[in-house]
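Sync notes, pocket subgroup
Present: LS, DG
LS reminded everyone that the earlier model was apo-only. Rerun requested with zinc ion included. Inputs:
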Amino acid sequence: MGEDILGMAVRYRALIQNSHVRLRSGRHTATFFDARRILCNPMLLKEFASEIIYLIKNRWMYFHVVVGRPPDCIKFATAVAIVLTNLSMSAVDLISSEERKGDIKQPKVEFSPFYAGQIRGREVILIEDVAMTLATLKEMARAIREAGGNLLGGVVVCNRAGDIEEELGVPFLSLINVSEDENWQSWPQEECPLCAKGVPLEWKVDDEKGFLVPATR
Ligand SMILES: [Zn+2]
C-alpha cells in the first residue's frame, strides 16, 4: 500500500527524492515534498484520501468530524469526508493566524463560533498535510480541545516532525513517515554534504512563486 502512494507521489512530483534542493529558507536538502501537487489533482487527492481513510478505519471505529487547517489541510479533510459519505461526518474549517514571539512565528488557530459548535462534544480526527514541526499540531490539538471536541487522534500525509503521538497524547498515524530518515535532513548551504561532494543544485524553491523550479532558471 505504501509503495503505491509513494510511487504516485513521485510520478506527480509531489515527492522528489535523491535530489539536491534549496528550500525557501535557504537550507539545502535531498528530498522534498509538496502536498499542493496532490491537492490540485482530484484523482490523486482521492487516492490519498482513500489511504488516509484506510488508516483511520483500522484505528478508530467511530468518529464524527475530520478537522484540517486552512488553506491546505482542510482540502485533505474535505476529500476524506466526501469519500466517506456513508458516515455521519463533516469537515470543519477554522480561523488560522500567526503570532510573533520574538523572531519565532507561533502558529495560532481558533475555531469560528459556527465551527466550534460543529465539534463540541464530538469525536474528532485531525488531518495534517506535512508536519514540519510539532508546534502547529500542538496548537491544532489545543484549539480542538478548547472548542470541546474529543480529539481521538489524527493522520499526517508526510511526517517530517518526529514523535507526534508523544507530543499530543493521542495516536497519530503517518502515510509517509520520514522523521527518522537522514535523507530528509536539511542543512545550511555551508554544511550541505551534497555541495561538499560537488553535486550541482537541481531544484530550488522560488522565493516569489513559492514552488519548486529548476535551479538553473
Ligand atoms: Zn547543497
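DG: The chain has two domains: 1-31+185-217, 46-180.
LS: The helical segments are 2-11, 36-39, 42-59, 73-83, 113-119, 135-146, 164-168, 193-196.
Action: DG to write up.
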